[in-house]
Amino acid sequence: MTRQSSTSSNTAPPRRLHLNVNILHSGFVPSAWRLADADPRAFIDVKHYVRVAQIAEAAKFDAVFLADNASIADQINFRPITALEPTILLASIAAATSHIGVIGTASTSYNEPYNIARRFATLDHVSGGRAGWNVVTTADLGSARNFGRDAVPDHAGRYARAAEFASVVKALWDSWEEGAIVGNKATGLFADTDQVHAAAHQGAHFAVQGPLNVPRSPQGYPVLVQAGASGDGRDLAARHAEAVFSASQSFDESLGYARDLKTRAAAYGRGPDAVKVLAGLTTIIGATEAEALRRRDELVDLIPWSYSLTRLAGTLGVTPDRLKLDEKLPDDLSLPGQGNGNHTFFHATLAQGRQHGYTVRELIRALAGGGGHRVIVGTPEQIADDIEHWFKAGAADGFNLMPDTLPGGLQDFVDGVIPILQRRGVFRREYEGTTLRGHLGLAVPENRYSAERAAALAV
Amino acid sequence: MTRQSSTSSNTAPPRRLHLNVNILHSGFVPSAWRLADADPRAFIDVKHYVRVAQIAEAAKFDAVFLADNASIADQINFRPITALEPTILLASIAAATSHIGVIGTASTSYNEPYNIARRFATLDHVSGGRAGWNVVTTADLGSARNFGRDAVPDHAGRYARAAEFASVVKALWDSWEEGAIVGNKATGLFADTDQVHAAAHQGAHFAVQGPLNVPRSPQGYPVLVQAGASGDGRDLAARHAEAVFSASQSFDESLGYARDLKTRAAAYGRGPDAVKVLAGLTTIIGATEAEALRRRDELVDLIPWSYSLTRLAGTLGVTPDRLKLDEKLPDDLSLPGQGNGNHTFFHATLAQGRQHGYTVRELIRALAGGGGHRVIVGTPEQIADDIEHWFKAGAADGFNLMPDTLPGGLQDFVDGVIPILQRRGVFRREYEGTTLRGHLGLAVPENRYSAERAAALAV
Q1: What's the topology of domain A14-303+369-458?
Q2: What does A114-179 look like in DSSP terms, one character per residue?
Q3: Which residue in A18, A163, A288, A421 is a FRET match for A138, CA 20 to 30 A apart?
Q4: Residue A159, marked binder
Q5: Does the interface ipTM go beyond 0.90?
Q6: What class, spelled out in words, does domain B2-174+201-285+375-443 have in CATH?
Q7: C-beta atoms of A206 and B148 within 8 A
């Protein structure tokens, strides 16, 4: 019903497909750095990130996205890590581009709201209104130990802190009203202090007086992005997020997720267009499906098997010696269920593998070294069909693309898939604006004090 | 004696003059934003900062420098504030330049060592080895209240935290040895984990396990900068800093400061060239001295007198109504003494004003709206003479330039003063390298684990 009403309306603007590229060093398959044209040091080379961003901007992507961690990854002997701090790297990218959005991850667990509000407001200023903040909590013990803790804070505590954190950051972003900078050279009045406001926040986790020492940024607020799959995560997203990265593995689940999220958002007084659902998607592209599958197997087979076995065993909660490459998964192994937000490609592939009797090697290939997000192995046409289907049906407003290799896999997508999506009228041919909010069709948030003033005047 | 021995040696490389430009929005005189060619919004416009940096790079400056605060400034109704977060803004500047160093301020009081280590290592990576960190503690109540505190931590406590903070950051910067990234495509070995080390720090203020999730940056460590004048500050500088910003007001005091600092550094086993002393210097330039003085008075008279009176009164510890513009300072007013690190231009000018019977207006003009740093009002020749004298005598290794207006005052310096310094062989005509350490003549710190390994092999 929702779909019908939205497509039958002649007055509503057409829905737009949104595409981000997630820049994870040399690509999402852990062996990407081993290809002949890859530089193993690309993960710490700003030129690599700029090059990927420029390819994405030439193809009119909405944004580049950077993940982040607060500790070293496991198994660094086999693959690059997420090393460079995102907001700084995104400033470098913004300087070399003009339109594409720049979304960076920062944790609410090991930062202070005042610092994060400043950094993303600054990124919004230097990028001319292209910044987004991906709000995450941090759950690994390694990170906890880098910040004076012996244990990971519990799930509910992390999300309570995150929700208060996001509220404080928004309050700080409202510190300066649009008209606060007067700059009257004749009178010498620089700022109207009546339009600069304290936050005066006192909460369970934070006491922050404010005001922020950064004037209102071009987008009002940088775009708030989130990726919560759990109940707490969905609730945080429904309250604060304007774009959500989902890891849904099937069309039906993604549709259910999108509907659930938009229902939760409505409970906070937010309309269905206020939160965009972007599904994670790894692509492995070939001129034929057989060629794409060959590419996948070649990439997976370049990952040291000890790495893949350890990773799979870790996710399954067993020791690596329980898994034999050319045997099936042990029959007595209970697979993780698909409840509690575990609707990922990983869980679906496990179930499929058991059903069809995959060997461990076949299972690892089918997972394509993926980290829980969906993988499509196929031709540009097949990938475009899938994207169009999900988009038109409302299972996703767009995709957070995680190419198998970078920049190669992105270039293949741009050369092969984008023209098809453009011909079908699904994806833009030109940018219509220069801000991330503009690309995503998100409103600029009204400053709370300006709104109060307007309401008072209207009485 | 030190001077003689250093100038009589034929083998030592020539000492080099170092010049940074401190980019404080539209310039160091608070009225700079009111000039006809100034944009009042320049303080939040990345293009403004990039333009200043490009002028400085064309003139072969060592670095640009950005101050920082963790709260809003007083009297924002009269002048711009330090708004944009330095590391992000410096990444933007680095992307638009190729040689000049980028030094940013970050506080040890309201950050975590792991985050700071990451950010400056990242800035060093994206700038290709041009990053510096100005280590400060934060002493204002406004900042404390933005980070959950009701009071400012005491001086000794702030410096104890800062010293431990700097030690942890250095340990984290040593996490990855130079050879840790193997990147062997044939074998699949990406990193040699024997060359990646935990910090395992347990101290009074921090517990940080490490390793840092950023590989060793181009400079080994970003350059450590500090500006402490107090005993605690000098000690922190002697232990960790490689460049120190001083606010010395007179030649003799600066010489004493430089000698004291280098003596303290020697106690930590550091040579006299391991710490560069850069004196703060505001310049107001005219074709004649009379023209320069007119420029100064015009700029000062453009500052609202209520602002200047409030600022002066605040520094003197009296209420503004005690000060009458066209009268002398009240005779019963006790001026702040020049002890305890108070050897600043401000204190010297106060003493001079009392001696010569300045009115408050004349005193405010003589201070040129300055914030405690020395002001030279004069011709390019006079300024070059002063710089050369200080430099050759060892009262400073260089200057942290704080032009009256930006970019205008810097352009005047570049057009007028730099050619004189170059003709006299005091300042470089070309860069000899591309790193900040190279410009400053500072060694790349040896990784502590690599050093241990080398020592073990040598036995």
Answers
A1: TIM Barrel (3.20.20)
A2: HHHHHHHHHHHHHTTS-EEEEEE----HHHHHHTT-SSPPPHHHHHHHHHHHHHHHHHHHTSB-TT
A3: A18
A4: yes
A5: yes
A6: alpha beta
A7: yes
